[in-house]
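Catalogue entry: protein

Sequence with per-residue tokens
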Amino acid sequence: MSQRDIHYSLIIKHMDLFEKCDHFETLKYVRKLGIYPYFHELESRQAPVVQMENHRVIMLGSNNYLGFTENEAVIKAGHAALDKYGTGVSGSRFLNGTLDLHLQLEKEIAEFTGYEECMTVSTGFQTNLAIISAICGKDDYILNDRENHASIYDACRLSYAKVLRYREGAPLSSQRYA
């Protein structure tokens, strides 16, 4: 950052909230440097190697671990589901309805894992919230690694349990808990 940019960042801390929005220059500056990592235009299907802004790049930020986005059977099943259900239930299945697809998936997972039943959720945040808030309450304590994902901290906070943070690798007996 140049002296001008450092000076600008100090001034902006003392601006009115709406004034900050009107004079937001940091994003332009970072984009101009070519180091802004977000919202790059994807010009191909999601795959291990994608076309992004006229470059072939290795996709390291995807959740496509098993390559299902390119699997023809999955694509065909996706078309069939789109024909049958449209684009979805337009909200959470909790409020807007559970599809037979949800129930079928949960039944198959339960059978595969040897459990009577199972419940699926669509994000890691929802998983953490569902599990932690279901088993922990205001009279419980949670030992939470300081490096845990923010979604785990959010779920702990919403459970009303007392959260004790610790530093990974340090003996628990030698730590003070925050």
About this structure: The longest helix spans residues 72-85. Strands lie at 49-52, 55-58, 141-145, 162-166. Residues 124-174 form one domain.
